[in-house]
Write a structure and sequence with these properties.
537 residues; alpha/beta; FAD/NAD(P)-binding domain; eight-stranded mixed β-sheet; 17 helices; 20 strands; binds NADP nicotinamide-adenine-dinucleotide phosphate
């Protein structure tokens, strides 16, 4: 670990990046390549962000490995070979370590350094950043790359601290081996993380009780190994693949079909759904007809199809019905990908508890109490998700002009301009923050990181020391962000995209539904128009 990055009393840095996930690493690389004096602080003891913390058994990409990975610089593409279409967490973490080494990033990264505060000085035009150990570092520009799903959320029931057994959150999984063998294990939560871990727990636990608040529409991941020939083909096609990602709404290699699924006969539609059910990854969500996300009848046809699949895979009809969502249609929430999830419920030692039938009352010393009984447990796994997008900002006391907290500014939901800045917080940029991403995150955040790099280089070249934005620019962006979600079926779903997975949180749309090409156009248009909506001085 490099010394004294955070205790430096030297000249202020040009830029400080917070977070060594896939976005922060790229931001560090881009700023350093532009010749800036930049450092990165990271709370964890290793790089990788999401792929460092979410190390639970079964954690796996559900974007194609090579579309989630970096495309630049090209030596990263040429020198790394993915073993599977959808790589598991250990491989992804290895990859991000390879990147940190290959780009020689570590000399500017300080690990085990949690940032707890940042205060803007208008007089000095500097941010002073503090860490949990009380060290400070001054920087001209501050860039937060905190990740959209990094602050774990827990059920709001009493007694978690009373439980005498082992407990884990999927998003804070330990580095030590967690042994399920012979144990009575509970998994709470059936989102993407819960659905991924359940088959692994079921293999070894003596009993597995799955506490489900709301079922999800899960489809098979259909993963496969990457052969040497296929790996070569991926390298040969790298430009083509990048262009597909760059020009698709979700930043993925898939794109929606713009004709209507309602124009097909029932038989044609079934063939189409059959094909997607067997296709890899998020094909069902991303390579389907666009009207599935917009039209209730089109959506109902697909949900009926997947419900049928669930009934066919789960032996007990009553359990199957509990696993079929009734509160939302396919795609209204991010659909989890699964590998043998539904078959787990056919095993005699596995029980599904629907919290709709018997709400959780408390966690006790020995297990979980619901309104209908008590479940004795040796281990509880919380797959209960995250305080999404702005949650990680709650752990940092960010103060802008006149000492105003960022959280006050975002009290009624996040307000940003282009997802890049907030009014009253000059020289602070968000990469992967609110109102700026959805889909394949690295493809969105690389666009932001490149933009921020060009912006800082431009300011420096022009002799400017400050960039800020206005309430009017935020208002305009807010309206644009909301127009992207308005009228879609997602608009009415209760999901982490609106923060409504966490009790008591105000509902506000946290992502950007306008698609990657529009997002890129919007931010580059502002840049080309002399940083329209920003104030440079
Ligand atoms: P999530 O989708 O928010 O799921 C959390 C689960 O916990 C939901 O089933 C939720 O129920 C339940 N829950 C929350 N609070 C609860 C409470 N108080 N009592 C009982 N149950 C509760 O979180 P996640 O599964 O960690 O996934 C979050 C996102 O991370 C995904 O949507 C995806 O974007 C990403 N992710 C990606 C991958 C991948 O790429 N392979 C893997 C994992 C996660 P409700 O549905 O009722 O809220």
């Amino acid at each position: 670990m490099p010394d004294n990055i955070a205790t430096s009393t030297d000249e202020p840095l040009d830029a400080l990046v917070v977070g060594a996930g896939i976005s922060g690493l790229y931001q560090l690389y881009a700023l350093r390549t532009a010749g800036l004096k930049v450092r990165l602080l990271e709370a964890g003891s290793g790089v990788g962000g999401t792929w460092f913390w979410n190390r639970y058994p079964g954690a796996r990409f559900d974007s194609e490995s090579y579309t989630y990975a970096y495309f630049f610089p090209r030596e990263l593409v040429n020198e790394w070979t993915w073993s599977e279409e959808f790589a598991g967490q250990p491989e992804t973490e290895r990859y991000l370590n390879f990147v940190a080494d290959r780009l020689d990033l570590r000399r500017d990264i300080q690990l085990e350094t949690r940032v707890t505060g940042a205060r803007w000085s208008e007089a000095e035009r500097l941010w002073t950043v503090t860490t949990e150990h009380g060290a400070t570092v001054r920087t001209r520009f501050l860039i937060t790359a905190l990740g959209i799903l990094s602050k774990p959320a827990f059920p709001n029931v009493p007694g978690r601290e009373d439980f005498k057994g082992e407990w884990y959150h999927t998003g804070l999984w330990p580095h030590t081996n967690v042994e399920f063998t012979g144990k009575r294990v509970a998994v709470i939560g059936t989102g993407s993380s819960g659905v991924q871990i359940v088959p692994f727990v079921a293999k070894d636990a003596s009993s597995l009780t799955i506490f489900q608040r709301t079922p999800n529409w899960c489809t098979p991941i259909n993963n496969f190994a990457i052969t040497p020939e296929y790996a070569q083909q991926l390298r040969d096609d790298v430009d083509k693949i990048y262009e597909l990602c760059r020009t698709s709404p979700g930043g993925s290699k898939h794109r929606p079909m713009m004709t209507s699924s309602l124009d097909l006969t029932d038989e044609q539609r079934r063939e189409h759904f059959d094909r997607l059910y067997q296709a890899p990854g998020l094909s069902m969500a991303l390579a389907n007809f666009r009207d599935i996300a917009l039209d209730r009848t089109a959506n109902a046809n697909l949900t009926a199809y997947i419900a049928e699949k669930i009934r066919a895979r789960v032996d007990d009809p009553a359990v199957a019905e509990k696993l079929i969502p009734t509160d939302h249609g396919f795609g209204q929430k991010r659909p989890p990908l699964e590998n043998g999830y539904y078959e787990v419920f056919n095993q005699p030692h596995v029980e599904l508890i629907s919290l709709a039938d018997e709400p959780m009352v408390r966690i006790t010393e020995t297990g979980i109490e619901t309104t209908k009984g008590h479940y004795e447990l040796d281990m509880i796994i919380f797959g209960t998700g995250f305080e999404a997008v702005t949650g990680s900002y709650r752990a940092i006391d960010i103060r802008g002009i006149d000492d105003r907290p960022l959280l006050d500014h975002w009290d009624n939901g996040p307000r940003t301009y282009l997802g890049l800045q907030a009014e009253g917080f000059p020289n602070l940029f968000f990469v992967g923050g609110p109102q700026s991403t959805a889909g394949n995150i690295p493809r969105f955040t690389e666009v932001q990181a490149d933009w921020v790099t060009r912006c800082i280089a431009h300011l420096t070249a022009q002799g400017h020391t400050r960039i800020g934005t206005s309430a009017a620019a935020e208002e305009e962006w807010n309206e644009h962000v909301l127009s992207g979600i308005r009228g879609t079926l997602q608009e009415t779903a209760e999901s982490w995209s609106f923060g409504s997975n966490v009790e008591g949180r105000k509902r506000a749309y946290l992502l950007y539904a306008g698609g990657l090409p529009t997002y890129r156009d919007k931010i580059t248009e502002a840049e080309s128009a002399d940083y329209k909506g920003f104030e440079l001085s």
